[in-house]
Design a protein that fits this description.
It contains two helices and eight strands. It is an alpha+beta fold and about 150 residues long. A hairpin with a 4-residue loop joins strand 1 and strand 2.
Length: about 150
């Protein structure tokens, strides 16, 4: 019960703190187009069903994008960004994250459809060595279909 209370307090504190941060990275909501058909490239065929389900959702990030996540095995979470104008996956999330049983309650990803800011709280997993990094809260700006680390706390 005590751990649940601590988690709830931290969750609300990060969201209140993050509200000011999101406003620093506004994204115009693009509403003057119809969603294009989803395009599944060769490299994304293994997650085709994940993409199809994600693309059914409304825009949830940076004005015209959909962020999607999926389990990549062994307590790992990964994902990407779909541009609803082109129907293509235009970016991967900046890192894989640990969501194993011990880390699951500590993982959080926060974003808004009206902002270019992505906040991920958790333990990064190196994409090459698969080594587990330190716990952190990472702030990324999404520009030109890429994520740029603003700060890590």
């Amino acid at each position: 019960m005590k751990n649940l209370l601590i988690f709830i307090l931290f969750f609300f504190s990060i969201n209140i703190y993050a509200q000011d941060e999101f406003e620093k990275y506004p994204a115009p909501l693009v509403t003057d187009f119809k969603k294009n058909n989803l395009v599944v490239s060769k490299e994304n065929r293994s997650i085709k069903n994940i993409l199809i389900n994600a693309y059914k959702q409304p825009v949830n990030f940076s004005g015209k994008y959909i962020i999607f996540t999926y389990a990549c095995g062994g307590g790992c979470l990964y994902g990407g960004v779909i541009d609803t104008k082109s129907g293509k996956v235009v970016s991967q999330l900046p890192a894989m994250y640990d969501t194993s049983d011990s880390a699951e309650s500590e993982f959080e990803i926060v974003y808004k459809k009206s902002s270019r800011l992505l906040i991920i709280r958790g333990r990064r997993i190196d994409k090459d060595s698969f080594e587990l990094g330190a716990f952190s809260t990472d702030f990324y700006e999404f520009k030109n279909n890429n994520f740029y680390l603003i700060k890590s706390e």
